[in-house]
Amino acid sequence: MAYIEFNHVIKEYASEGVAIRALDDASFSIERGELAVILGASGAGKTTALNILGGMDTASSGDVIVDGENISKYNHKQLVGYRRTDIGFVFQFYNLVPNLTALENVELAAQICENSLNAAETLDKVGLGDRMSNFPAQLSGGEQQRVSIARALAKNPKLLLCDEPTGALDYNTGKQILQLLQDTCRREKITVLLITHNSALAPMADKVIHFKSGKVVKTARNEQPVPIAQIEW
Ligand SMILES: Nc1ncnc2c1ncn2[C@@H]1O[C@H](COP(=O)(O)OP(=O)(O)OP(=O)(O)O)[C@@H](O)[C@H]1O
């Protein structure tokens, strides 16, 4: 069994009496410690898949296995615990608490987990060791995204889920953030799943999962993933 298995997942939303199938029998797997990229056009179902994997949404049918646990069978309380301790989230917008410093933002997340990492050390690892006492408004977009990555990592999660993490950043800053995520995956041996609509990023991943119209239409493995610095788009 793979570390993550998304098996025949269907997700339907009811919208004004009409059923919208956001996921239509989608299946993929990811091994522990892999960097996986989900590619697909707008509306393909990428965010829906990520939200289900992160316990923020539930499947209409199908199984979602994470580290041997079938999270699709979890009740509300179990999902709360799963989101709190097992999953680190990084979003396009950083969602930092504006009146807390970088350090306090990371500490806040670490406090809700049992096996959390030291907040200051984690900020140091993402390159912000000298900006810990700054408030979000005093940091650039790229620096704020580093804080949000540190906040996710400080939870010491099983899985880091990133939804378009460079969507609000310029080309070079975005590249640095992707490099950080790639390096973190390798160095910390953490499983990372990244959503993007930029197909040029495919070579950075161990595994590439292509979504189209709610289905996984192709998965590919890169035997030798390419460092982000060598990818241009
Ligand atoms: N809560 C919801 N209620 C109704 N429809 C939804 C809901 N969430 C998603 N959908 C629909 O499901 C489909 C897949 O959406 P999803 O956000 O997963 O796509 P995506 O690939 O992440 O797109 P994007 O790249 O634009 O974010 C879309 O048609 C969307 O409108």
Task: Describe, in plain words, how this protein is organized in 3D.
GO terms for molecular function: ATP binding; ATP hydrolysis activity; transmembrane transporter activity. Pfam families: ABC_tran. This protein is an alpha/beta fold. 28% of the residues lie in helices and 28% in strands. The chain has a single domain, classed as P-loop containing nucleotide triphosphate hydrolases (Rossmann fold, 3-Layer(aba) Sandwich), CATH 3.40.50.300. The protein has a 6-stranded mixed β-sheet with strand order 6-7-8-3-9-10, with helices on both faces. The structure holds adenosine-5'-triphosphate.
Which ligands are bound? adenosine-5'-triphosphate
The CATH fourth-level homologous superfamily: P-loop containing nucleotide triphosphate hydrolases
Counting helices, strands and paired strands, the structural category is alpha/beta
Based on CA atoms alone, the radius of gyration comes out at 17 Å
What is the CATH top level name? Alpha Beta
Number of domains: 1
Biggest sheet strand line-up: 6-7-8-3-9-10
Number of strands: 10
For the record, give the distance between the C-alpha atoms at the N and C termini, rounded to a whole number: 35 Å
Helix content: 25-40%
User: Quick one: biggest sheet?
Assistant: 6 strands, mixed
GO molecular function: ATP binding; ATP hydrolysis activity; transmembrane transporter activity
Family: Belongs to the ABC transporter superfamily.
Keywords: ATP-binding, Nucleotide-binding, Transport
Protein name: Putative ABC transport system ATP-binding protein
